[in-house]
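Lesson 9: reading folded outputs for more than one chain in a single document. The general rule is that every protein is listed as its sequence immediately followed by its structure tokens, and records are never interleaved. Here is the first one.
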Amino acid sequence: MYPPVSDPSGLDADRPGQWTYAMRVDTAARAHESPTHQHRMSQLVLCLEGGVTCTVPQGIWMVPPRCAVWIPGGVPHCNHVTRNGQVNFLFVPAETPGMPATCQTLGVTPLVREMVVHLAALSAEDSAAPGNRRLADVLVEQLARLEPEPLHLPLPAHPRLREIADALAARPDDRATLADWGRRVAMSERTLARLVRQEVGMSFGRWRQRLHIILALQWLSEGLSVQRSADQLGYESVSAFITMFRKALGTTPARYFAPATMNRRGNGSSTVPSDRAG
């Protein structure tokens, strides 16, 4: 059993009948990571500044500053918030109809963002007021309309694939081919390719690229330059890294984090260095 995590608001995500409520978490110069825990209520993790990485037994979800991640009630998870992060947690009763049954990273609208921010600023007493509880009900209706984004890294259960996953997480600049990895884990390339697709639902190359996107978003959210991010992921040039980023997310790193983009998607502003090397 994973332990509950205390809520400084005085509300209780493990209490039967608890209404929908929100709370705010700020981190200063140091990153913060919660221990693995679970609670009765489902949770929306909304990132306003910095970035959040949510880890569950089946995968890792990245929450850059224009997105949120949905975690169903009862799912063990831990949240890593980057330094200088601003995060709002919204807790929703697990029995609420129409909500996702699995973890998802979601694009957030301006309306959802402002409603969550408003609820997170309330005291426990004000959260219980009829008007604010009606507002929370409207917010829950809006959550069901949010679109998922491809910021999920599935984690394999097979021991040899977990060995590869751990090695790539420790050394993401490792450019070994699938055949190389097959030799390392005593498995043929064909068997390894089939096993990867069975376990994570995509090819090895696409899965490794998804890992690179997750790591890049985390580093860029923390303020690491595009040049350094490209270097740490083993790209030969910044332009090659930017090309990969654009193909995966439809835009460059600088535009992804640009204030105009944030405001259009409803998440304030955040800055990273430009796409140029330096």
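And here is the second record, again sequence then tokens.
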Amino acid sequence: MRGFRLRLWQGGLFLGFLLLWEWASRTGRLDPFFFSTPSAIASRVLRWFATGEVYPHLYVTTVEMLLAFALGTLLGVALGLWLALSPGAAAVLEPYVKALNAIPRVVLAPIFTLWFGLGILSKVALGVTLVLFVAFFNTYQGVKEVPSVVLQNARLLGARRGHLLRHVYLPSAASWIFSSLRTSIGFAVIGAVVGEYLGSAAGLGYLIAQAEGVFDTTGVFAGMAVLMVFVLALDALVGMVERRLLVWRPKEREGGTA
């Protein structure tokens, strides 16, 4: 199922869900105090954008997300390349990497708040910890997936370490890295929003926390709706960049084979 027909099914499913939700709230099947209604949520979102109330919060969350995304990705890719190309260092650091990855990131949020305060640094630090390991493991696995035959042939042709990195390892890991970017976008936003939720003066997380504090269910759902559209837009942007940079990759057919 492709193209227009797929979009039609997706849109129809979403519209049906909203209509069912609206009907259930208006007829008392769902308590509007706890679940609100899609119409009220849409009205709140439109009001936020019409009055400009949401723009400062979007700006703060965007800055935090971009910094966390960029720093986490760069560190993760660099660390993944280093350990994938240095088996000795990988063997020594493996238990430490696994131990750090096992730490629940939400637990780190209060610690980062104590270390860096309520400003942007604590949110960026939390986002980096979420993004870094996603980029690291995908890069590491992508480099490890390079066929040994390709490496042997490249070396026979005179390729040195720098040539292998540029023409073999990085192209091989590119699909894995871009796959991690699609996931990392969401994690970077989660890091920023969770940090804002726990303590901040602006941002989408702050907006949601404020609404929750006064039992404003409509405001909570409106903040979540803005957040979801925000992440989907970022994901579409990364997907567009991925398609432009990976034009050499074979396209999948409808059956799932290349």
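What the second record shows: The chain has two domains: 1-35, 36-245.
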